Amino acid sequence: MRSQRSGRALRRHPSLGGAVAAACLSVALLAGCGDDPQAMVASAKTYLEKKDYNAAGIQLKNALLEDADLAEARYLLGKVYLEQGDAFAAVKELKRAEELGYSSDAVAPELARALLRSGDFDGVLKSYGERKLPEAGAQARLLAAVGDARMAKGDIAAARNAYEAALAADASVYPARIGLGRTRLAGGDIVGARAEAETVAKQEPGAPEAHALLAETWLAERRPDEAVAALDAAVAARPSALSYHFRLVSLLLSMNKLDEAKERLAAMKKAAPAHPSTRYLQAFVDFREGRFQEARNGVQLVLKGTPDYLPAHLLAGSVLVRLNDYIAARPHLNKVLERAPQQPLARRLLVASYLGSGESARALEALQPLLQQAQQSEDASLMALAGQVYLANGDFDAAESYLSRAVSKSPNDATNRARLGVAKMAGGDTDGAFADLEAASSLDQSTAQADLALVFAHMRRGEYDKALVAQKELERKEPNNPQTYNLKGGVFLAKKDFAEARQAFEKAVSIQPSYLPAITNLVRLDLLDKKPAEAKARYEKLIAQEPRNSDALVALAEVQRSTGSPAAEVLATLEKAAAVAPAATGPKIALIQQHLRMQQPNKALGIAQTAVTANPADVPALEVLAHTQLAAGDRQQAISSFTKLVSLQQQAPGPLVDLAEAQRLAGDLTGAEQSLQRALAIQRDHVLASQRLVTLRLQSGNQEGALAQTKRMQQQHADNPLGYLLEGDVRMSANQWTEAAAAYRRAFDQGQSAEVVNKLHSALSRAGRKAEADKVTSAWLATHPRDLTVLGYLGETALSERRYAEAARHFKSMLEVAPDNVLILNNLAWVANEIKDPAALAYAERALAAEPNNPVVLDTVGNIEINVGKQDAGIAKLAKAVSLAPDLAQLRLNLAKAYAKVGRKDEAKKEIDTLLATAKDGSPLQAEARELAKTL
Predict the structure, then answer these.
(1) Is the sign of the CA dihedral 239, 242, 243, 249 positive or negative?
(2) How many CA atoms lie within 13 A of 260 on its CB side?
(3) Domain ranges of the chain
(4) Which DSSP category does 920 fall into?
């Protein structure tokens, strides 16, 4: 009995032993089952020799659980991650190993490979481009990685040198031979590249890189099926290496073999379901199948884990553009272009985003690098995009040229034919335009692109009734589209039928209550009807429904500002807009501009810097930063920002013109002229660059050069008066009054304007032809009696020449036109005081009531009050004026005169001393202050 019980107990031991062993094995996976970390590292090395990377990885992670600072474990785990295709994790572990003291020479080749696979090509070249390692094999592996980085940067010759040097150091380092094969392929030697790949495949049958290179050679010969087979072999050789899975799935997607791609993607998910590459491809499949929300969510997960992964940024930009979220798309697209400026899809999407948000000028700037890359390309989609951009910018000749090329490549594309029709219409080819538009309409019965174009075409010609006929067809095809009725309202607006326009806009809003374009049009009508409260209420209602609608908040702020709301209220609205859309540049720009209006340049600068930090290659953000830096007085930083803008828009003259202005303000006149010359080299007839060049040369004393530039402008722009206007300015600076008058006369004959009238009057007066000068202004005012520019010029001129009665007459005429204008009231008060007009104080008080804290108005009122015996009140206002504008020396001098006049000499002397401490030597104001000091 005892033995039987013993036997039964013994028979249980194997089972119990198995359970204990299983438990120990399970625990070993987590804690090594009692092994020390070094033993686990040794075990991992054994697994690595067998190329069992999963088992090796488990042992290394267990070792690091016991000792997180084990440098060798970090190094080996980095190699495991590298073999498994997780480059970002490999970089992290290898860097940590080096920090913990592991041999830098050992780490270098592996870390270079990891950086390379993570896309950090510049990092490889910066850290290892000139690095020399003592061991030949390590040096060869490092040179192979350097060669790959140079290949990625497009420097084929340097890459080949690196690969050849690697093979000279150690011919058995097959990645160098693979790289050499790629340089042969890049040079067009497909046979030579395939020979290199086959050599490696024989030497290293399990090397997946050889199969991958073979796939590239098949693709170069446009044999994608053979390439798929080669990549299948690469995956079979190393199933844990995700990069080959990735290439295989990507290739199948490009071949439109979606089912096969999804099948291979399923295999990839088994290997690494949560890996960023796997998630990226799933998001891409979602995008291809029209599941844009799922694609957006998926790519956001990818970017959360790998924020520098450029393909994910490109996919995110693509998805967001398809979702019409143009502003949110741009940071992703700019991220791609910052690192890969020649990436064509990113740039096309960027252009599309600007078109979508109505920023046609920016779309044109972003388009130029694409056109330069394409050169003589007849890619129909690019030609169509270029035509659309030029059409939006009003360059109808260029639009017609590009769209004609697009239509010739895709004659059945209704959208392109419709756009071509609009371009022809705008260019004057009416018959051809309507033929194309009608053909487009017949080609596409399901959508309304052609009908939309027809409406616009008729509107451009002023044929509003015909536009309404075309709009009815649009309404038939898209009766539930709010854009249909918004356009209808636009036609009625053009006809000045505001009641019908309002009804159409209301219909658009009834279909889609959040449709901002129609709401904005209704707001405009409210403001036209002088109903600002109703206008604001429309935006407020939308914001109540959609609190995160930043566009509506920005629009509300603009209405608040234009209707006189307090600056702080406008600022609060814009702060809310920026807060609800932290990734958007537009609300930040509006907020910056408001801070600048409120004379808060430092606050504006902080926001601008934050915007650029978030989106370093975003052109609008950089542009506003540069201008804000100028406003804040930081000219050197502004120059740096404008220089970056120039590098981002190499074929755009505008940034160079802005850079030149910053250089001029910083005193670098030579640099400014060079920048303007570069702008003119890009566009020789650029008006603003030419104008700035004339002004700059005048400032530097080069009158001959300035005059020569005006002559060039006259030749380039024969119908533009600006060239003659600038010639007149140059002649005036040289005291050539007669010649200046002749130039101004030519300018006036070509384009009559108040500015030219004033300049012609000045030149004729200085030439001693006063009667002729007065005849010019009199003739102008006879036909433009309410022209404030000419009246103001005449008033200021009379004031400066102490002809106060005449000045008062002109200012009174101005006041009839603008009865609440503070500047006019102030000037009129001043001259009225000089001619002892008792109405002087009343004028001044009206100005002060409108702007109670305007220091110049306070100064005027104070001086008049002193003159009429209200000395205490007058001095109080003069003192307040100085406190509000302490740097305006004339105000301080006026206060000192007032103190002296009432016998308060100590206070007068104190103001004079303060003034003289900062007054410019030799200035009339300094001389007047010293004369006053002598009387105290």
Answers:
(1) positive
(2) 14
(3) 394-465, 897-935
(4) P
Assigned token pair, 565: 């709301």
DSSP letter for 467, please: H
Tell me the two tokens of residue 16. Answer: 């119990």
Q: CA–CA separation, 376 vs 261, rounded Å? A: 34
The two structure tokens encoding residue 709: 């530039």
The Cα angle at residue 63 between residues 59 and 64, in degrees rounded to 5: 120
How many whole angstroms separate alpha carbon 397 and alpha carbon 390? Answer: 8
- Asked if 900 and 932 touch (Cβ cutoff 8 Å), the reply is yes
Q: How buried is residue 919: exposed, middle or buried, by Cβ count under 10 Å (0-12/13-18/19+)?
A: buried
**Sequential DSSP letters for 64-79:** HHH-TT-HHHHHHHHH
Residue found by looking up tokens 């096309």 in the block: 348
Entry pTM: 0.54
Name, in order, each residue with C-beta under 8 angstroms of 288's C-beta and a sequence gap of 6 or more.
253, 258
Largest CA distance in the chain: 144
pLDDT for res 640: 93
Q: Please tell me the predicted confidence (pLDDT) of residue 399.
A: 66
Q: Which residue has the tokens 């920016």?
A: 362
pLDDT score, position 450: 58
d(CA 403, CA 530): 44
The alpha carbon of 865 is separated from its chain's Cα centroid by a whole number of angstroms, namely: 53
Q: Select from 346, 312, 353, 275 the least CA-distant residue to 81.
A: 275
User: What is the per-residue DSSP string for 243-272?
Assistant: HHHHHHHHHHHHTT-HHHHHHHHHHHHHH-
Q: Among 431, 417, 354, 428, which Cα is nearest to 387's?
A: 417
CB 603, CB 595: distance < 8 Å = yes
Contacts of 796 by beta carbon, 8 Å cutoff, 6+ apart: 807, 827
Return the structure tokens found at 242. 């995700």
* Whether the Cβ atoms of residue 771 and residue 741 lie closer than 8 Å to each other: no
Distance between CA atoms of 764 and 777, rounded to whole angstroms?
A: 11
d(CA 336, CA 315): 10
Average pLDDT of adjacent 10-residue blocks, the chain of 936 residues: 32 32 32 65 87 86 88 92 84 92 92 86 89 90 90 85 90 87 86 87 83 86 88 83 80 84 86 81 82 82 81 84 81 82 81 77 78 62 75 66 63 53 48 47 49 69 84 84 85 91 92 86 92 93 88 91 90 92 81 91 91 78 90 92 85 89 93 92 88 92 93 89 93 94 93 91 94 94 92 92 93 92 93 93 93 92 92 93 89 92 91 86 85 87
**Which letter does DSSP use for residue 34 in this model?**
G
Is CATH 1.25.40.10 what the domain over 394-465 is classified as, yes or no?
yes
Residue recorded with tokens 């053009």 = 494
- Which tokens is 187 given? 């040079």
DSSP annotation string for 533-594: HHHHHHHHHHHHH-TT-HHHHHHHHHHHHHTT--HHHHHHHHHHHHHH-TT-SHHHHHHHHH
